[in-house]
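Q: I'm writing a short explainer about Elongation factor G for a general audience and would like to include a description of its predicted shape. Could you first generate the structure from this sequence?
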Amino acid sequence: MAREYKIEDYRNFGIMAHIDAGKTTTTERILYYTGKSHKIGEVHDGAATMDWMEQEQERGITITSAATTTYWKGRDGKMRRFNIIDTPGHVDFTIEVERSLRVLDGAIALLDANAGVEPQTETVWRQAEKYNVPRMIFCNKMDKTGADFYRSVEMIKTRLGATAVVMQLPIGAETEFKGVIDLVEMNALIWRDESLGAQWDVVEIPEDMKAKAEEYREKLIETVVDIDEAATEAYLEGILPDNDQIRALVRRGTIDVKFHPMFCGTAFKNKGVQPLLDAVVDYLPSPMDIPAIKGIDFKTEAEIERHADDSEPLSMLAFKIMNDPFVGSLTFARIYSGKLEKGASVINTVKDKRERVGRMLQMHSNSREDIEEAFAGDIVALAGLKETTTGDTLCDPLKPVILERMEFPEPVIQIAIEPKTKGDQEKMGLALNRLAAEDPSFRVKTDQESGQTIIAGMGELHLDIIVDRMRREFKVEATVGAPQVAYRETITRTHEEDYTHKKQSGGTGQFARVKIVFEPNPEGDEFKFESKIVGGSVPKEYIPGVQKGIESVLSSGPLAGFPMLGVKATLIDGAFHDVDSSVLAFEIASRACFREAAKKAGAQLLEPMMKVEVVTPEDYVGDVIGDLNSRRGQIQGQESRGIAVVINANVPLANMFKYVDNLRSMSQGRAQYTMTFDHYSPVPSNVATEIQAKYSGQK
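A: Of course. Here's the predicted structure. Afterward I'll give you a sentence or two in plain language.
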């Protein structure tokens, strides 16, 4: 079976946005106009095609990125293949956004025309910067009260530090929004309301907007000629680029992430979606336009590249695992190079395990079609993989490569969980492990002392949804405890400890002496180990045992048994015995040495501090600030945003539980907040004493 669409006609992109910016609605419209969806699903009646998990339909927020393949005829009459990844916008799911950005070639950043750049917009924008993803901007909800396109343009500059190249101007706003002015063609598009947005009229630019259109076209040309020497020279000589040249320059600048073309419309009212699809073709990259993906040779560890070409060796990245009620576990993968056939044997180079591709599926939201073969640039769902988890590389066993690993954040909140009936214990374990395989920011562990099952994640909503999914998908009812904060411990001063481990009880004894300097690691939260042994007082082969011994006790600090951060250990002296010393003896000695030293090196309790942004009407500012102060919050500043006030604060996570309910009642439901992990900070001594007493079992 030959490739149906050339790789240069592919567009792999996602839609990224703040919660409530209208992302699912926009995706729905895209599926409708590209012929994939016969009935438009509305989020507020729980019928959107992309939001296929039950909770998503109830809550009206997108939780799982679903991958969809669809097709669009560009302005040149040629069909293009779109692979769209729907990403969640709630802050508890940023891990999903980061995973999908990793495998996309481009993205549409959606703004709410009333709110402009919101906190979560900034978060996902920064994630897209990290992966250098070319982005276009769609200013959505132009029909909403308070919609202000020009303020959104300004906020892109002030809040994101990015350059928006305005490609369209809105005609009217709020209930008067009728259409857009195309600044390349210099005409106006007015949508016919009665045709569900399928038809529009191309007319002359309204008289009262001609001057503004000229002004913005000039700005557009000035920005785009700047990226090309020849175009700049011509412009300075008074020669303006023609429309095709403008498009070519916008495409180049977008792909090089120099600027971001900006469009506007209202997806809900079906205005502006088709020009946005044309813009995806015109300005977002195909897999051929982005740099070759870099990887590491599995055997030699040399850096190698894989190009978007069917004739190269197969390489693909698993970016999502999903449980499908009909097929079982599905692994979503992006093929970067080569081609894949159903039944093929591939190697997972991260786990060093062989996998066989049982079935290969093309996904549309939550319906699917079996395919026999897939090519470079495709995004496919694979059934039958046993060992693969998110972030793993799958490739040709004869040409193994490891593509870049994804990095996942550490969870900041944990709760104890137990099944309502004893008989469900095994079922719960199975369900939690399945969910953890799908979502690397969710962890499961067993508390050694209490034997309780502990689940950890990125926030309350994240864990709520996990518990909810267990009930729905795995039929396990569970009881959850109060949320527990992921505290940490550290040391605050330098201490030198000399420790000797001796054991003599018939037969071979054990002997090891170590002298270690422990101090705070100036370079950050990691553990750093150094050996300054000269002259062989500790033989070279025993030194890894010293490091391993210390590392093994870092998971439980001296104050309340929390993992330790930011410790540096330097081995400066020691002694050994020809017969009785061993790696194990030095491991035991260094373990005890650290336990002794940690008590004397100014051990300190640390707590996660969250960056909290509250957006509230002015009437409630005093109450909100007072409440944040009472939660040990440090107010970082406030600013006006339209008629609302934005308050920024750093607040300990321990004091933020159930904050959403308090904020709602305080502001009559009008204020919103977002919260992301910021850093670990020392716990005040009075609070630390309480925490220690609680966790040391003295209370």
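A: For your explainer, you could say: The chain has 16 helices and 38 strands.
Q: Perfect, that's easy to follow.
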